[in-house]
Each structure stands twice: as structure tokens, then as C-alpha cells.
Amino acid sequence: MHGLGEGGSEDAQALVTQQDVSISGTESCVLCVCARCEMPIRERYVNRVMERSFHTECLRCCVCNEQLSSTCFMKEDCLYCKQHFYKLLMFYTLLFLFFFI
Ligand SMILES: [Zn+2]
Ligand SMILES: [Zn+2]
Q1: d(CA 28, CA 30)
Q2: Cβ atoms within 10 A of the Cβ of 32, count?
Q3: What is the pLDDT of residues 12-21, one digit of tens each?
Q4: In this protein, which residues make up the domain named LIM zinc-binding (predicted)?
Q5: 47 Rama sector, left if φ>0, alpha if ψ -120 to 50, beta otherwise
Q6: Which residues have a Cβ under 8 Å from the Cβ of 53 and sit 6 or more positions away?
Q7: What residues have CB less than 8 Å from 57, skipping those under 6 apart?
Q8: Which of 12, 32, 63, 65 could make an SS bond with 41 (beta carbons 3.0 to 4.6 A apart)?
Q9: Whose atoms come closest to the Cα of 37: which ligand?
């Protein structure tokens, strides 16, 4: 099973949940390290995407650098906006067709 087709539910649309870390105390703040820049997150809200944490500033599409809000797309640890995620999917599909047909 590769990430193509219906089987690859891991690389897909991901919901961003904002966690208010100021309520839960300091303990969880220490654990929050941004998955993109690897710096500790000291903001009030930590953006959680697929069990990873991001600074609001780091929640950007890795192609166009557009800031992402409530919905983003993740593939191979990179975040994408909707537009570029579908472009990427198209590219993988074409690549797949090219090699297997
Ligand atoms: Zn960051
Ligand atoms: Zn983009």
C-alpha cells in the first residue's frame, strides 16, 4: 500500500486545532516545539496539526508561503494550502500513470 488512492488517508486534509496553552499551565508549553522551525512555542495558542505543533507564523504553505488558517493539507511533513496540495496530488497521479500504464 502506497500513499496513492483511497488507501493514503495519512496524507490528506488536516484540521488545525488551536490549543490554549495559557490555561493548562506551563508544563505543556515546554513540550510544545514547533515542527517546522524546531523552536519552542511561547504563544498563547499552539496550532496543532496531526499531532504536531506549529507557531501561527510557521503555519504556511511550503510552496507559496501563504498563511494557513483552519484547514491545511499535509504531505510528507510539509504543509500545503488547498491549491498546492491538489496540484501536488495531480503531479503524483500523473507520475503514477506515466510509470504504470
Ligand atoms: Zn515555528
Ligand atoms: Zn500554496
Answers
A1: 5
A2: 19
A3: 677 888 887 7
A4: 32-91
A5: beta
A6: 32, 33, 34, 35, 41, 46, 47
A7: 67
A8: 32
A9: 1
Structure confidence by residue, pLDDT tens digits, 42-63: 888 889 898 889 999 999 999 9
Starting from the CA of residue 79, give the closest ligand.
Answer: 2
CA of 2 to the centre of ligand 1 (A): 30
Rounded distance between C-alpha atoms, residue 74 and residue 9, angstroms: 11
Kindly give the distance from the C-alpha atom of residue 28 to the centroid of ligand 2, in angstroms, as a whole number: 30
The Å distance, Cα 86 to ligand 2 centre, comes to 10
Looking only at the bridges linking them, the beta strands covering 45-49 and 52-54 are antiparallel
As given in the structure block, the three cell numbers for residue 19 are 490549543
Fold of 13-100: Cysteine Rich Protein (2.10.110)
pTM: 0.68
Return d(Cα 52, Cα 60) in angstroms, integer: 14
